[in-house]
Amino acid sequence: MNTTAPRPQCRDCLHYYITHEVSFPYGCRAMNFKSRRQPLLDVRDSTGRDCLTYTPRPARR
User: Fold this and answer.
1) How many CB atoms lie within 10 A of CB 17?
2) Which residues have a Cβ under 8 Å from the Cβ of 23 and sit 6 or more positions away?
3) Per-residue model confidence (pLDDT) at position 61
4) Each residue's pLDDT tens digit in the chain (61 positions)?
5) Distance, CA of 21 to CA of 56 (rounded, Å)
6) What is the C-alpha to C-alpha distance for residues 35 and 56, in angstroms, rounded to an integer?
7) pLDDT, tens digit, for every residue of 46-55?
8) What are phi and psi of 57, to 5 degrees?
9) What's residue 2's pLDDT?
10) Is residue 49 classed as helix, strand or coil in its secondary structure?
11) What is the pTM of this model?
């Protein structure tokens, strides 16, 4: 039985956005940066941990 919680995904985070810039298409408002790949991957590479600013996006009606 797997008891680990699922890892947060950028697309489910309130702070995630699409920049529409060809060079840096993904962004994180909480950490104020843009990236060529999902911001969570840059956070993991830099800190070795999952994002600490992850905030679930409110459910759509």
Assistant:
1) 14
2) 36
3) 78
4) 555 666 789 999 999 999 999 999 999 999 999 999 999 999 999 999 999 999 999 888 7
5) 24
6) 20
7) 999 999 999 9
8) -70, 140
9) 55
10) coil
11) 0.80
Q: Which long-range contacts (CB under 8 A, 24 or more apart) does 1-8 make?
A: 7/40, 7/50, 8/40, 8/50, 8/51, 8/54
Cα gap 3→17, rounded to integer Å? 30
The CA-to-CA distance between both ends of the chain, in Å, stands at 32
5-9: Cβ within 8 A, 24+ apart: 7/40, 7/50, 8/40, 8/50, 8/51, 8/54, 9/38, 9/40
State the amino acid at position 26 in one-letter form: Y
Name the residue type at position 60: R
- Go through the chain and tell me how many residues it has: 61
